[in-house]
Queue: 2 jobs
Job 1
Amino acid sequence: MRQHRTFSRLFGSLLLVAAAGIAGVGAAPGGSAPAAAEPPRPLGQIVPAPARVKAGGSPYAVTEGTRIRVDEDSGEVRRIGEYLADLLRPSTGYALPVTAQDGSDGIRLRLGSTDPSLGAEGYRLQSSGGSVTITARGPAGLFHGVQTLRQLLPADVEKDSVQDGPWKVAGGTLTDSPRYAYRSAMLDVSRHFFSVDEVKRYIDQLALYKINTLHLHLSDDQGWRIAIDSWPRLAEYGGSTEVGGGPGGHYTKSDYKEILQYAASRYLEVVPEIDMPGHTNAALASYAELNCDGVAPPLYTGTSVGFSSLCAPKAVTYDFVDDVIRELAALTPGRYLHIGGDEAHSTSHEDYVAFMEKAQAIVGKYGKTVVGWHQLTGAEPVAGAVAQYWGYDRTGAAERQQVADAAKKGTKLVLSPADRTYLDMKYDQNTRLGLAWAGYVEVQRSYDWDPATYLAGVPADSVLGVEAPLWSETLTNSEEIEQMAFPRLPGVAELGWSPAATHDWESYKVRLAAQGPRFSALGINYYRSPQVPWGAE
Ligand code: ACM
């Protein structure tokens, strides 16, 4: 029986009012058995692919009577319940109350799983006629389970106005946990500046694919984007432009904290990057004393690289680095601080090694773990440092070997090969935005590689995870970010999350195609790659 929507919503609220007054009526079934128009999406047809799926049993239907039950009134589980309710209410039109009252029906979010295989981020989702239960060992696992539940519901659930159901979730059990702990996306807010709201929008998109790290490239030749109290001209002057000469901008400390809090609410850790000793024209333009010749260069709004360097022999350089790292470390609760180190073509090798040694020591002094681009392995990575590999097929054997040797000595690696994961590479010759220095990167190329075997000679347990960087020389707003990130970002997210055994382009492209209506419902401006069998929309 398909109820008329208005009646259905009214009936739902009446039930809620009735239930509120009667103890023990927790199991209000909602009264409607939605029409079996379409079978629910098969369990497991999500991105990233889940680790284990056991399909079977009756589907669960979200109805006007559904409650979201949080098993304890711990603020965090309740907050995840409210987050889920906020996702589902606009499109379903249902009240979906979040309650700490126990019951065997509804959508149940439960902490306290004792299954050690779930780890800190894993979850189990059990769906049957009476309930959907998500259990996890920690809140991050519950949150990822909620993203899975969201993807198991029809794409229309993402819309912000009331849609027709039914809102069914296939029956069965899905047990899921990530392959890699570090699943990252980078946003370059330096070449073009992006507002706090634009960053939040991207964070929401990353969360849907279980990305847990946001790397913010906060400084480069074209703009310094974070307020530093002890060196105020960095942001005020160094942040006052961007590629093409636009007005640029910067995050105040309170803006930055707002981004961090929003990221944390989506279980993402922010890794801030101050790129040094190259990529520093915005800083050099702001303070003459940072230049070896004592002369500040003009601000830069072009797209060349490799022409700027902090002055490694000068003492003031390390006062500057200490102040910047101290203030940034104090603002950032996350473990990592990225100090760049790439394309330092205007720094001698000797100066580079000396600079990186001092900069790494400063990061350690303020309690953070060093991350650097893989050129760090050409200096002396400190114990515990993480190197981010961004080479590509034309990267020479000696450079790869240097990275592999560092890994053998204990340096951990995050892999972001430019001709696979750089989201700013053009898809093909017709792509309007982006660059092509690492070649064209279509969707299959981006997805079809294995982080564990990508770099010869690297021990598999040296790989912390993967990242999809998005450089913004050609990108100015969310629409343009999305055109490049989607649909490649979900593929990199899957490489980070899903077991190697699930890796298969032929089945992935079908699961990805099913994300198309979801992208559309969310207003994501995605590239309809001819490699993916998108349906009609
Ligand atoms: C980089 O693409 N220069 C890290």
Job 2
Amino acid sequence: MKNNFPEGFLWGAATSAYQVEGGNCFCDWWEWEESSGKERSNQACRHYELFKEDFAIASGLGHNAHRFSIEWSRIEPQPGKFVQEELKHYFEVARVLGGLNIEPVVTLHHFTIPLWLAKKGGWENPRVVFYYLRFVEKILEILAPQVKYWITINEPMVYAYHGYIAAAWPPQKSSLFRAAQVKKNLLKAHLGAYSLIQDYYRKRNIPAPSIGIAQSMQAFVCCEDNFRNRLAARLRHYLFNLEFIDKAIGKNALDFIGVNYYTRSLVDVKSWGIKGLLLDICEKHKNFPLNSMGWEIYPQGLFDLLCLLKVYNIPIIISENGICTQDDNLRWSYIYEHLKQIKLAIDKEIQVKGYLYWSLLDNFEWDKGFAPRFGLVEVDYTTFKRKARDSAFKFAEICRANSL
Ligand code: IFM
């Protein structure tokens, strides 16, 4: 039928541990919040305790998939000391999802690292690959049979950019050289995890899992159509959107591309030079409605990107797409317009296999604190009561019907 999505399409939402669980005091972000004077994450949404309630809501909203991340610093608060209770917790998280017929999509690294690792240089230190794989192995022992979809790393380029170029996130460095080092180690970690997970399943005769990364992708659009901007847009598209997945696919180490898509970026290079080419943007010519953090709403960009990804000929999951806004009608139109673009791409035989809205709950938006409201479900941060928004119910109809 005309508006149907493919059979078995994954419908749901995503979260990340640090942004919803609360009390993640053994990681780098927790310490950074203390020293930076930024809004504290504190109890976040108390999802660590309330996950069953939250998953019951997701199930009631017709979701058949849910993306969550594992908080590494809970599992391994000190080097090499793995906490059984915490491993059991994530086993329980996946078990509860399974019991509700919700497919777990597990992210192994979503921005935070244990504080002890940060003190050893974090992702700049080549040893990080060893530490990461040791952690991944522990997670496999707990989750392997229950989990089919793995995301090794969330948004490697966003991580490298905010922490090591823009100096906006911990460890607040500003060096292209360091960022390149971090990117290199993230890629090595992904490649190692890919083999580790595949081998683990193969040796135990568990049906092969599907392993991807969640790549933040923006539509890079020239503010003014001139040679310098066109060159910069191409360069940024390669470096920020494609390079990481390109290299993973080149090594046969990617089963699906996770696309995190929110907005476009207006390229406006003010001077020649590497920084200008990579980073200069225009804030003046935003022509589309904005989310509450000032990002333009540009659904067409998702279609354009999906068309460009077709050459890789591997499945794609929209691992994040969402809007922070106080206007729930705008949220609904955002979701609907992006789904229309995805459907257009599917009609062009692009293999999109799932859509995970960001986010199931309102949550802690990193250095922006709790003000941005991304949730399908509203969270009252005083009582921790949850209330599904109208957009969540409208989205539920699409999830249930598997059709627009
Ligand atoms: O909240 C973040 C998430 O952690 C990673 N992707 C983008 C989201 C919205 O900014």
